[in-house]
Amino acid sequence: MPDQCVRAWVTGKVQGVGYRRSMQSQALTLGVTGYAHNLPDGRVEALMCGPAESIVKLCEWLRQGPPNAHVTHVDIEVVDDVHVPDHFSTR
C-alpha cells in the first residue's frame, strides 16, 4: 500500500511536448504508480501514488517537466479514497 496519493493538474505548454511520457519515466524511476492524461483544455491531469518522498520529488519535477515544456501552474491535492493502480500509465 502506498504512503500517499495525490492528484495534480499541470497548466502551460504541456501537451505535444512529451510531458506525459517523461513523467512516466520519472515515476517509474521513483517507484510511483498512477497515470497522466491530457485534458481537453490543454492541461495534463495526473494521479501519483507511492512513498511520500517519491511523491514530493515527482511533484517538484512536474513544475519543470521535459525540456520542451513550459509549465505555468501546478495544482496538487491529496486524495484518500482512490483506486491505487499497480503501474504508471499514460492515457
Automatic annotation (TrEMBL):
Recorded protein name is acylphosphatase
The EC designation for this entry is 3.6.1.7
Q: Which UniProt keywords apply?
A: Hydrolase
GO MF annotations in UniProt: acylphosphatase activity
Return the SUPFAM superfamilies for the record.
Acylphosphatase/BLUF domain-like
Which class of enzymes does this protein belong to?
A: hydrolase
| Catalytic activities | an acyl phosphate + H2O = a carboxylate + phosphate + H(+)
Q: Which PROSITE patterns match?
A: ACYLPHOSPHATASE_3
